[in-house]
Design a protein that fits this description.
347 residues; alpha/beta; Spore Coat Polysaccharide Biosynthesis Protein SpsA, Chain A; 47% helix; elongated; disordered C terminus
């Protein structure tokens, strides 16, 4: 048995895996994603859980299944990610479950390495680095922000230089089926943050979640400012819901964006009142927005990472959108009718 940091030696008869992929409106990326999984050269089945898409996704999925008997298509009437994952897992056959997104790409040897790590670490879930890569200057700026502590606060799976070892959560993941069965799979009431929640419940049940930078998955960022803002606002809303249900998960990292939004809003309001009323002391409030935007601009300018000038020029905007949208979403939270799941734990 190899140690966690060693190079895996592939068994003569590798254990087959079930690859589960939630699919919704992925006409552009689905074929490429499935081809990338099959290129892993590991015994497998692929289960595509297809939601009610508005493009050719369902047709493409069935074409792929007709062309390769390793591929199965199951319907996901709700179209939500946790339902898709639970349905795909239920329809799968093998004891190792590999979660893949329809717009991601696994690094060569990803599955071999993940299976080796499951054996050598005894973990319930192993995963790695979300390697964000963009094509346009804006997408590249988003990718830089994703993989910088200034952007998302330094979560291990966002940073390529994070050390291998036990982790709070990982990107996607390769799971033991018995561990998933023990904790009940993905929470269908969490439309976002379901990965984080699952890893939290695995850890609470006594399992280990293991991060390895060897396990890289390419992630394609949002291609417009509007789409980015919408994504992060919704993420902030669902992160607040996770904290509401599990108060012991509250941390400075998750509180920083809403506190920043409140400070900027409060400072700006105080400054405007000072200008309107002539009370100069209140104009000190302008230091909050000026300080924030100055800090973001300086962080982008001083970031020690090679990037094109057009990418660096867009980075302050991208960072601001991420922070403000995430923070605003966390402040607003979910509408009451969208909340679900258990009542908050007593801590």
């Amino acid at each position: 048995m190899s140690s966690p940091g060693s190079t895996p030696r592939r068994p003569l008869d590798p254990e087959p895996v079930s690859v589960v992929i939630p699919v919704l409106n992925e006409e552009t990326h689905l074929e490429e994603s499935v081809a990338g999984v099959l290129a892993q050269d590991h015994p497998m089945e692929i289960v595509l859980a297809v939601g009610p898409s508005t493009d050719r996704t369902e047709e493409i999925a069935h074409e792929l299944a007709a062309a390769d008997d390793r591929i199965t298509v199951v319907a996901n009437p709700s179209g939500t990610t946790p339902d898709a994952l639970n349905l795909a897992i239920a329809a799968s056959r093998y004891d190792i479950i590999v979660r893949v997104d329809a717009h991601g790409a696994l690094a060569p040897g990803y599955i071999d390495r993940a299976v080796d790590l499951l054996r050598s670490t005894g973990a319930a879930n192993v995963g790695g680095h979300m390697a964000a890569r963009g094509r346009t200057p804006l997408e590249k700026a988003v990718a830089v922000a994703y993989t910088s502590p200034v952007g998302l606060g330094g979560g291990s799976f966002h940073l390529a230089n994070s050390p291998e070892g036990p982790a709070e959560t990982v990107f996607l993941g390769v799971f033991r089926r018995d561990a998933l069965d023990q904790v009940g799979g993905y929470d269908p009431t969490l439309l976002r943050a379901q990965d984080w929640d699952l890893n939290y419940r695995l850890r609470k049940a006594g399992w280990t979640v293991w991060f390895s930078p060897d396990l890289q998955v390419t992630y394609r960022p949002r291609s417009s400012v509007t789409a980015l803002a919408r994504q992060f606002f919704r993420t902030g809303q669902w992160r607040r819901e996770v904290m509401r249900r599990n108060p012991d998960t509250i941390s400075p990292r998750y509180l920083a964006p809403p506190v920043t939004v409140l400070a900027i809003a409060g400072g700006s309001l105080a400054g405007l009142l000072g200008l309107a009323t002539g009370r100069r002391a209140l104009t000190v409030g302008f230091l909050a927005p000026v300080g924030y935007f100055g800090g973001v601009t300086a962080a982008a300018a001083l970031m020690r990472r090679p990037m094109d000038p057009g990418v660096r020029a867009r980075l302050p905007l991208v960072l601001t959108v991420m922070h403000m949208a995430w923070g605003a979403g966390a402040i607003v939270g979910l509408p009451v009718e969208q909340r679900g799941g258990p009542e908050p734990e007593q801590v």
